[in-house]
Specification:
Distance between the termini: 34 Å
Strand content: under 5%
Oligomer: single chain
Shape: elongated
Mean pLDDT: 85
Low-confidence stretches: none
Number of helices: 17
Radius of gyration: 30 Å
Structural class: mainly alpha
């Protein structure tokens, strides 16, 4: 059996490696996730760089000389606002404009609250860093003046602040980073499905459409051995894609300036290796499931359509976890796709998991893999499947 299995495996590997364009496109396509991740977070980090000068156009600078001096001392670069500042803010060429009314000085001198306006467009992500920095400076200035006024009247500033909230953040840098980088588990699981997609289609639906499946089944090889050899070749491509995507994410996470977003990512080799180990069992199941769908499909195109829909499956638990994180329970690790994404998320958070979650996720995948392969063997004994259905 081993010799026959090896022969089938070699035949499938040789057939698919011969199509270099297909192999290259799969590996290149799997890198879309890491590249998208790198570009997106590099751009967002550039918007939030704290050492970037705060450029703030102002209308009515002469109405509040002390406030202007405070902002300049705090590092803001003030300038006159253009006449069409509202349209420029809406167009995204200006982040925010500070407006000082003419009666600011009158209210300020009378000890009343002097109003200023901060004109902005909160729907623009690029402007949020400038808006937050400006609001923080204005809040600091207001708090400082309020304290000085109370002290001048002989009143303790604490009387104006009955409750003071001190935040005690128990999150670790790894947990904070994991909450931001929650797309990595989704892309890692998707890599399982992307890597074996073309191979699974070609090895079943493709062979039947070319008419080579019948001649292959005429050989003295058991259905199970034949299916196992095809499945192993599909799994190899799926596993290689997972490793390539994992390495790409590890390299990218170290290169992009995530520290500008206030997070620190340290994907150590051991953590990256554990992430690969958590996802690889999913490659076994995804290959078997794709082969099962491809066997049942009537044609190559039909298999392609079904498998593209199947690729949406791994994104669902990831989207739910990203939008509404849940407290993981032990049984969840045994659910394929969900278990892998939970494992990767917990590893990125720096949690100590132990061996049992890995065992449960592997067993869950192996059980479904065996069921899929058994069903494929049965389908290959059906003449309607082998010779095609009308």
């Amino acid at each position: 059996m081993r010799a026959l299995l090896t022969a089938v495996f070699r035949k499938e590997m040789r057939d698919h490696l011969r199509d270099r364009r297909s192999v290259t496109s799969v590996l290149g396509g799997s890198l879309v996730g890491p590249i998208l991740f790198a570009v997106m977070f590099t751009v967002i980090a550039s918007w939030n760089r704290q050492d970037k000068p705060l450029e703030l156009p102002v209308v009515g600078r002469a109405n509040a000389p002390s406030l202007m001096a405070y902002l300049e001392r705090s590092g803001a670069k003030l300038s006159e606002a253009p006449a069409d500042y509202e349209s420029r803010i809406q167009a995204g060429t200006l982040d925010a404009v500070l407006i000082i009314p003419e009666d600011y000085g009158k209210d300020f001198a009378a000890g009343r609250s002097a109003k200023v306006q901060l004109v902005m467009d909160n729907s623009r992500n690029k402007a949020r860093a400038t808006i937050k920095r400006t609001q923080a400076l204005l809040s600091q200035y207001s708090g400082s003046l309020g304290t000085q006024r109370l002290l001048a009247r002989g009143v303790a500033p604490e009387l104006a602040m009955p409750v003071r909230v001190e935040e005690v953040d128990l999150s670790t840098p790894e947990r904070l980073a994991a909450s931001i980088l929650n797309m990595i588990p989704i892309f890692l699981v998707m890599a399982c499905f992307i890597g074996g997609l073309n191979v699974a289609i070609d090895t079943m639906a493709g062979e039947r459409e070319r008419g080579s499946l019948e001649s292959l089944l005429l050989n003295p090889v058991e259905r199970g051995t034949l299916v196992l050899g095809k499945w192993l070749s599909t799994t190899v491509f799926s596993c290689i894609t997972v490793v390539v995507v994992s390495v790409a994410f590890t390299v990218v996470a170290k290169r992009i300036p995530l520290q500008d977003l206030g997070v620190k990512v340290s994907l150590e080799p051991a953590t990256a290796l554990a992430m690969v180990g958590a996802v690889l069992p999913m490659a076994l199941l995804s290959s078997a499931a794709q082969m099962l769908v491809s066997t049942f499909a009537r044609s190559y195109k039909e298999a392609q359509t079904y498998l593209q829909l199947l690729m949406m499956l791994p994104t669902l638990p990831g989207m739910v976890l990203a939008l509404s994180p849940i407290q993981s329970q032990m049984w969840m690790y045994g659910v394929p796709v969900l278990g892998q994404q939970l494992l990767v998320s917990e590893l990125m958070r720096g949690e100590s998991l132990g061996v049992l979650p890995f065992v449960l996720s592997t067993v869950g995948c192996l059980v479904l893999t065996a069921l899929c392969l058994t069903q494929i063997s049965r389908l290959l004994s059906d003449e309607r499947i082998v010779f095609g259905r009308s």
